């Protein structure tokens, strides 16, 4: 463990982190599970930032409120799950009520030589920077509680030749359940997320305004996500779940829509339209337009005559 500017503590090993949190030495060097019904939180480092070099999964069964993870806050409604990937900041809370349920830490080395190590990037929720936690129904909570209890039981056994295989299988089960429940959340909370999509479309409408686009260039995925205050991965997963399209496809669709309006309702040249939309080269605009519409911009314009 080392400190930066006396406020950020960097942890490369789970053992160091457990010591700083006032928890017992982990039963396995690459994975640790804290059960807050059995362990009291040590608040000595409350208010400090932790930079941890491993994955973190927090399961809160009943807690309701905000918990700060990194640069944003997760809102919990009667419990839920929150995820962090390696090298993200965690700010230690001084509120004892926050320490509820289970917190699981596991190092990338635990899964490196398994299929899960190759597939871990497919679990997009580890990349969600500022977003809602995974809200859970009572039935879903019971499912996940069963997995956490299985992990706890396995960690209570003596380490043998099969320990790592079993733990990795249990981790994969936990992540697959989480994937399923996140997908369900995107669907059941569709009304909430519709506001986000509306805000995105409104932003893109303004972004493709003639004066703004010509000076700012084409909008990109990161820019749109930043405007909406969500991570790129979260926005993409949300849009694909609800619309079947990713963020880049939504940007392109809005661009083509604006291009069609200009081609049908103005006397601007193809090059002028391309520059207005933010393209540096008219040829790039023509190529993209034809890829989406199967006709050239000029042929599309002539179809109105």
TrEMBL record:
It comes from the Bacteria. The keyword tRNA processing does not apply. SUPFAM superfamilies: Homeodomain-like (SSF46689). Pfam families: HTH_18. The keyword DNA-binding applies. InterPro entries: Homeodomain-like_sf, HTH_AraC, Tscrpt_reg_AraC-type_HTH. PROSITE patterns: HTH_ARAC_FAMILY_2. GO terms for molecular function: DNA-binding transcription factor activity; sequence-specific DNA binding. It comes from Pedobacter cryoconitis. Transmembrane segments: none annotated. Residues 198-303 form the HTH araC/xylS-type domain. Keywords: DNA-binding, Transcription, Transcription regulation. This is AraC-like DNA-binding protein.
């Amino acid at each position: 463990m080392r400190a930066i500017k006396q406020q950020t503590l960097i942890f490369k090993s789970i053992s160091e982190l457990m010591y700083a949190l006032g928890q017992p030495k982990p039963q396995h060097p690459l994975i640790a599970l804290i059960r807050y019904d059995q362990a009291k939180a040590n608040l000595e480092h409350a208010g400090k930032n932790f930079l941890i070099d491993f994955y973190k999964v927090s399961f809160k069964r009943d807690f309701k409120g905000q918990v700060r993870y990194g640069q944003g806050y997760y809102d919990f409604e009667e419990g839920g799950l929150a995820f962090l990937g390696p090298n993200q900041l965690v700010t230690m809370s001084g509120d004892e009520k926050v320490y509820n349920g289970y917190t699981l830490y596991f190092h990338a080395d635990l899964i490196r030589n398994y299929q899960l190590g190759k597939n871990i990037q497919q679990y997009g929720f580890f990349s969600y920077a500022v977003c809602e936690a995974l809200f859970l129904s009572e039935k879903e909570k019971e499912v996940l509680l069963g997995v956490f209890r299985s992990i706890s039981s396995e960690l209570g056994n003596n380490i043998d030749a099969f320990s790592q295989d079993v733990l990795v299988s249990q981790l994969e089960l936990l992540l697959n359940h989480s994937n399923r429940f996140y997908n369900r959340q995107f669907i059941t909370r569709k009304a909430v997320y519709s506001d986000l999509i509306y805000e995105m479309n409104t932003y893109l409408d303004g972004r493709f305004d003639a004066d703004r686009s010509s000076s700012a260039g084409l909008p990109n995925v990161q820019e749109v996500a930043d405007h909406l205050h969500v991570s790129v991965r979260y926005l993409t997963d949300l849009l694909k779940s609800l619309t079947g399209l990713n963020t880049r496809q939504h940007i392109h669709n809005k661009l083509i829509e604006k291009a069609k309006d200009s081609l049908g309702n103005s006397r601007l040249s193809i090059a002028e339209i391309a520059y207005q939309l933010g393209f540096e080269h008219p040829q790039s605009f023509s190529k993209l337009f034809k890829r989406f519409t199967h006709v050239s911009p000029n042929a599309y314009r002539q179809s109105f005559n």
